[in-house]
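Fill in residues.
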């Protein structure tokens, strides 16, 4: 494939028409704004047009000129049509790429291999180029890329897809969850609808019926209680009102009678004592006279008194002397006090000693003897007699009081007995007086029992809370059972709550189904019909999603297995002698080969170390990229030589690399028949190309300066 000539009309930055009869090596030199880039972009547009890959650097960097460049480029020896010559230009409907359509294996970025624009030698995807050029891995990658990343990285687990919950997997899981929810709603309807509600309604009906029967029993029981209360009230109202007062009167009469007996005994005792009153009153003066007439006794008393007084005087004097002699006042006072107390004690004892009766006074002796006979104790002195006389006088006053009290008590007994006699024979004619109290106590106890029973019945009736107008006089045939009634009411309330809950759950279930199917309704048939349709629709979507994801996961698994094998093929192809030879030539022996591991392309340095092409310096990267361009252009075109448009492709290389690149380009033209169009603004590169091409290519070299 060869470009015969190029014509680009003056326009834009191009100052004059550009005409080239192409040789093997074509060197175009011009400064900035001289039209070099304009010419290349015109050629790219005419030769490749809209077929450029939208992600390629070439398409992104090609400008849309207004007006568009005009002219023609003539190409001959097109693969598949070796004798066919075609002119391409502004008005041409086809382009060079479309003529390659019959060629199998041409990659979509093939035009990018043939053109370096504005010094940008970097291929948009060297990795893809290697894969498409040496194996079918590129196609496998495209297949894998067609699978969404989230599915591509997923795996199959136990009845599930294991992966990040996003994208298609999220959609798949949402469909599965939606289907399960819909099926759960169907199961909930099938299990709970009607069955639970009927059971609750049945329990509620049974409880309501039994409660109604018990309510009748309660009303009948209230009627019976009211009847019993009426009987008790009548019986109590017929009882005498004065029973308690009569009982108190009987008890008071008994106590009063017992008291009057005591008073009679007391009166009798006092009267017996007062039988000696007259003797005492007559004998006392006589006894006193006889005692006073006795001389011996008074002399003795006088002598004793004198002795005592003398003793007191002596002791007092002694006490005063002690005080004057400066003895302790406590000692002196104590001595005097002891003397006085001793004298007084002596006089008291002497006064109470039995009298010494003179033997010659028989009357005095008779009085003493008779006193003992009457009162049972000795007459010791006058004081004893006087005390007895005083006691007798007091007894006479006491007797008068007791007699008056006895008379009053006897009158009270008559009054109490009269009250009882007027009432008791009428109340208990068959009972004697001695049985009145027992009869009264029995009646009062019976009344108390009636009151207790009445209060109890009234309490029971009040607790029923049944008005008189609601009493039931007919026996309903069932006994009133408050415990059963309480239990039934509790069960009834529970059943009502359960019914409300069941109805609420049904309403809630209807709402859930209506929300799930997007159709609210109170009709179960409509809801369940819509639910079944929704389940069928969701199930179909879920199956499609699951099938697609499972297929894609299986495809990715198969692709990865094949990719491993393709990686081995790529690695082997990169070790081919012609590949290594081109790399060494263009790199000046700085590189010894390529490496391919796990889909990543690296170069091997002269020291044997591997380095990813993405981490190479700009100059080294240019060498590798240009080597790849030529390598794969030759590989895709086979034995047919091609052409390269290089716009300052080597400007980033250092001086040593520049010479290697220039020599390699000359080698391509001279030894392999390729056509090179190098556009340069670099004097050094221009001179290098000019010198080498002029020396080695002769007439197959053309130089075109742009002014």
């Amino acid at each position: 494939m060869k470009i015969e000539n190029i014509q680009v009309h003056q326009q834009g930055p191009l100052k004059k028409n550009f005409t080239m009869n192409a040789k093997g090596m074509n060197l175009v030199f011009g400064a900035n704004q001289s039209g070099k880039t304009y010419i290349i972009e015109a050629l790219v547009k005419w030769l490749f047009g809209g077929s450029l890959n939208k992600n390629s650097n070439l398409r992104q960097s090609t400008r849309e000129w207004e007006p568009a460049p005009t002219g023609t480029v003539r190409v001959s020896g097109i693969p598949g049509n070796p004798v066919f010559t075609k002119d391409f230009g502004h008005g041409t409907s086809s382009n060079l790429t479309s003529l390659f359509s019959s060629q199998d294996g041409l990659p979509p970025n093939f035009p990018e291999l043939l053109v370096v624009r504005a010094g940008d030698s970097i291929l948009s995807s060297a990795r893809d180029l290697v894969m498409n050029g040496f194996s079918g891995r590129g196609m496998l990658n495209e297949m894998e890329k067609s699978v969404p990343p989230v599915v591509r990285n997923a795996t199959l687990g136990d009845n599930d897809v294991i992966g990040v919950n996003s994208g298609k997997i999220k959609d798949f899981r949402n469909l599965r969850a939606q289907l399960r929810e819909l099926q759960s709603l169907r199961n909930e309807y099938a299990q709970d609808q009607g069955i639970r509600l009927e059971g609750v309604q049945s329990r509620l009906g049974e409880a309501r019926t039994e409660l109604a029967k018990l309510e009748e029993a309660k009303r009948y029981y209230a009627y019976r209680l009211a009847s019993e209360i009426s009987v008790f009230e009548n019986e109590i109202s017929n009882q005498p009102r004065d029973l308690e007062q009569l009982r108190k009167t009987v008890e008071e009469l008994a106590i009063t009678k017992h008291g009057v007996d005591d008073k009679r005994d007391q009166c009798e005792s006092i009267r017996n004592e007062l039988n000696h009153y007259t003797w005492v009153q007559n004998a006392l003066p006589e006894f006193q006279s006889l005692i006073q007439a006795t001389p011996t006794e008074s002399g003795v008393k006088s002598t004793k008194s004198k002795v005592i007084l003398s003793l007191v005087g002596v002791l007092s004097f002694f006490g005063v002397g002690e005080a004057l002699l400066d003895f302790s006042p406590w000692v002196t006072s104590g001595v005097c006090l002891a003397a006085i107390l001793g004298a007084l004690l002596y006089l008291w004892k002497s006064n109470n000693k039995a009298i010494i009766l003179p033997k010659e006074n028989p009357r005095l002796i008779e009085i003493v003897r008779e006193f003992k006979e009457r009162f049972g104790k000795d007459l010791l002195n006058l004081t004893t007699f006087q005390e007895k006389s005083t006691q007798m006088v007091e007894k006479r006053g006491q007797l008068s009081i007791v007699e008056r009290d006895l008379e009053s008590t006897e009158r009270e007994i008559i009054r109490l007995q009269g009250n009882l006699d007027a009432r008791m024979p009428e109340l208990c004619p068959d009972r004697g007086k001695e049985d009145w109290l027992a009869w009264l106590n029995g009646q009062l106890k019976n009344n108390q029992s009636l009151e207790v029973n009445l209060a109890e019945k009234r309490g029971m009736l009040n607790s029923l809370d049944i008005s008189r107008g609601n009493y039931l006089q007919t026996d309903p045939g069932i006994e009133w059972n408050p415990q059963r009634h309480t239990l039934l009411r509790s069960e009834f309330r529970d059943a009502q709550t359960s019914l409300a809950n069941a109805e609420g759950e049904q309403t809630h279930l209807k709402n859930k189904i209506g929300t799930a199917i997007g159709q609210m309704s109170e009709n179960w048939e409509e809801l369940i019909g819509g639910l079944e349709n929704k389940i069928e629709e969701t199930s179909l979507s879920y199956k499609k999603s699951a099938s697609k994801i499972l297929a894609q996961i299986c495809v990715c698994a198969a692709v990865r297995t094949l990719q491993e094998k393709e990686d081995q093929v790529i690695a082997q192809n990169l070790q081919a002698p012609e590949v290594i030879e081109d790399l060494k030539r263009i790199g000046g022996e700085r590189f010894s080969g390529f490496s391919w591991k796990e889909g990543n392309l690296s170069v091997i340095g002269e020291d044997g170390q591997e380095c990813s092409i993405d981490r190479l310096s700009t100059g080294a990267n240019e060498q590798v990229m240009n080597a790849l361009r030529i390598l794969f252009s030759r590989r895709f075109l086979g034995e047919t030589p091609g052409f390269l448009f290089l716009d300052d492709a080597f400007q980033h290389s250092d001086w040593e690399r520049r010479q290697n690149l220039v020599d390699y380009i000359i080698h391509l033209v001279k030894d392999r028949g390729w056509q090179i169009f190098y556009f340069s603004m670099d004097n050094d590169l221009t001179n290098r190309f000019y010198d080498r091409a002029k020396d080695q290519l002769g007439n197959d070299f053309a130089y075109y300066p742009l002014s």
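The first strand starts at residue 2 and ends at 8.
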